[in-house]
């Protein structure tokens, strides 16, 4: 089954009681049992919900995994992965990553004895510098947030193939449409499903897809034990959004290429960060590892001024100044003060995240209108 068919049909079947084509919203907290322990597979809605089951089956198919486990947010999905570890274990993570991921490791789990190492994973051999007998998890973002760096998933998986180390890839920026980490050897693929999977900026959710049944069972245990589960209405909205994932991503990627071409030639724009540019250090890896280059773009101004960056950020009309990404509408953001404010400034600067860096999430509007909107904002600087 090809991807465009999977998003609509995989794991989703007409409702057996009514024949409803769309998966119903099972808005219930509990289920009747014939006798103690005798039921139809559902006991209590924290543990199972039919709408959530359909969504999880669909997501597992999209990532070519054994099982998908959904959570109330992307951060609760990452939290569940961290809960697979024990005090004294160590995590190796990319040094260019979402601020909330950095915060979870350093401000939450380091208090309980977990140790994080944040290094440049664009060179896989760097893993060997921190790899030791206590390493239990490698956390990869690719493309990274917000510098759009590429990490070779397959190469890193080979480095730890003979060790008891989980490799988890935050696949949020790419989505399953562009990249399938499990096919490249990763153990887990994680998403902030709020973004491209949902695609309409109307639901918050996270998901982890596992390549191994035993790991999936451990995550399912945590989903039930901790209880950070999405409600049936959110699961319904996510199922609906996923049905157009391939169409939305195709259009957004096309738009991004046009906008990158415009930004690369604009006299007030400095460096443009986008894997589709032949000058991007990870361009060839992106060609191998991804099916297209995505719809996220970051750029600096020639005049590296916070004030001029603010003028651009506040000067657009179609690009909305807002947190998040991956919706049908285009967004513009300032990582240093928004999505990555929890990372110390010195650490941000080490990876190139300047105070004036601007991040775009390109939507599915008409590309000419988006380019005119950015051009108008840049011209006023």
Describe this structure in words.
It is a single chain. This protein is of the alpha/beta class and 381 residues long. It has two domains: 240 residues, Aspartate Aminotransferase, domain 2 (3-Layer(aba) Sandwich); 135 residues, Aspartate Aminotransferase, domain 1. The chain is built from 14 helices and twelve strands. Strands 1-7-6-5-4-2-3 form a seven-stranded mixed beta sheet, sandwiched between helices. A five-stranded mixed beta sheet has the order 8-9-12-11-10. Strand 4, helix 6 and strand 5 form a beta-alpha-beta unit. The mean pLDDT is 96.
Give the topology.
Blueprint: H1 3-9, H2 50-62, E1 67-71, H3 74-82, E2 90-94, H4 99-108, E3 115-119, H5 127-130, E4 135-141, H6 153-159, E5 166-170, H7 175-178, E6 188-192, E7 206-210, H8 213-226, H9 232-242, H10 245-265, E8 269-273, H11 283-289, E9 296-301, H12 306-313, E10 320-321, E11 331-333, H13 345-350, E12 358-361, H14 367-379
Parallel strand pairs: 2-3, 2-4, 4-5, 5-6, 10-11
Antiparallel strand pairs: 1-7, 6-7, 8-9, 9-12, 11-12
Helix pairs in contact: 1-2, 2-9, 3-4
């Amino acid at each position: 089954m090809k991807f465009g068919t999977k998003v609509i049909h995989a794991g989703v079947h007409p409702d057996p009681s009514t024949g409803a084509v769309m998966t119903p919203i099972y808005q219930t907290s509990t289920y009747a049992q014939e006798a103690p322990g005798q039921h139809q597979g559902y006991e209590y809605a924290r543990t199972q919900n039919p709408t959530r089951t359909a969504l999880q089956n669909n997501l597992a198919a999209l990532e070519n995994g054994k099982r998908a486990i959904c959570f109330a947010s992307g951060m609760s999905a990452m939290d569940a992965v961290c809960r697979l570890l024990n005090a004294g274990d160590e995590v190796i993570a990319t040094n260019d990553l979402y601020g909330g991921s950095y915060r979870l490791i350093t401000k939450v789990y380091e208090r309980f004895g977990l140790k994080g190492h944040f290094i440049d994973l664009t060179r896989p051999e760097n893993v060997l510098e921190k790899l030791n007998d206590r390493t239990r998890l490698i956390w990869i973002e690719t493309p990274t947030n917000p510098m759009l760096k590429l990490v070779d998933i397959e190469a890193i998986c080979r480095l730890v193939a003979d060790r008891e180390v989980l490799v988890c890839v935050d696949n949020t920026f790419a989505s399953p449409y562009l990249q399938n980490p499990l096919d490249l050897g990763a153990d887990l693929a994680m998403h902030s499903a709020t973004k491209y999977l949902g695609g309409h900026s109307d639901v918050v959710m996270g998901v982890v897809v596992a390549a191994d049944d035993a790991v999936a069972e451990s995550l399912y245990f945590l989903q039930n034990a901790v209880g950070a589960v999405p409600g049936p209405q959110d699961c319904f909205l996510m199922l609906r959004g996923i049905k157009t994932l391939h169409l939305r991503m195709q259009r957004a990627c096309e738009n991004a290429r046009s906008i990158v071409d415009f930004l690369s030639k604009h006299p007030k724009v400095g460096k443009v960060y986008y894997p589709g540019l032949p000058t991007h250090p990870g361009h060839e890896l992106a060609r191998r590892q991804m099916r297209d280059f995505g719809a996220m773009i970051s750029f600096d101004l020639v005049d590296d001024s916070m004030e001029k960056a603010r003028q651009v950020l506040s000067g657009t009309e179609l690009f909305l100044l807002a947190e998040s990404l991956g919706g049908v509408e285009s967004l513009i953001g300032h990582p240093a003060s928004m999505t990555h404010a929890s990372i110390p400034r010195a650490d941000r600067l080490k990876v190139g995240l300047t105070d004036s860096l601007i991040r775009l999430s390109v939507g599915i509007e008409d590309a000419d209108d988006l380019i005119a909107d950015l051009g108008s904002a840049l011209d006023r600087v």
